[in-house]
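hiii, so i know i said id send this last week but things got crazy w the move. better late than never?? heres the sequnce for the chain we talked about at the cafe, plus the structure i predicted for it. fair warning i was half asleep when i ran it
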Amino acid sequence: MKAKIPTENKINEKDKKRFLSKIQKTDACWIWIGTIKPNGYGQFGLNYKIHYAHRFAYKLFIGEITKDLCVLHKCDNRRCVNPNHLFLGTLKDNVEDCIKKGRNKLPPILRGENHGSSKLKLSDVVAIRRMYQQKEYTMVFLGKLFGVKKSQISKIINKKLWRTT
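okay and structure toks below
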């Protein structure tokens, strides 16, 4: 006999009780202690579908969410499902909230010899520019000498690469 797949979008008392059993309430946040996705958000399975725990909590305690809206956290805690800490916003609101709370820290841009795929050192670049200025060496020759393409040498000489040197 096949399992009956619910067609209604309503949450019954049994599902609500199961959801609440996966929450540890503190004075502030309600911490999701169920399964955590790799991105740090809680997840809750219901009716053969995986839901983000904070979105499910919003739906359970506050109301429906249209697909174009995000559920944001006032507390900035991805595992929090406290409905008092949740609010709706657009993707733009979510990005602005991220920036405002300082969660948009990007890793530093690595340039020059600090870049993982750099074949040259700063001393090589200085030598390339000096040798080319002497008009004794062609870009093709310098490329072969330093193990890079002529186009790379051209960009170095014209300061399209390694501009700060």
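btw The first strand starts at residue 23 and ends at 25. thought thatd interest u
miss u guys!!
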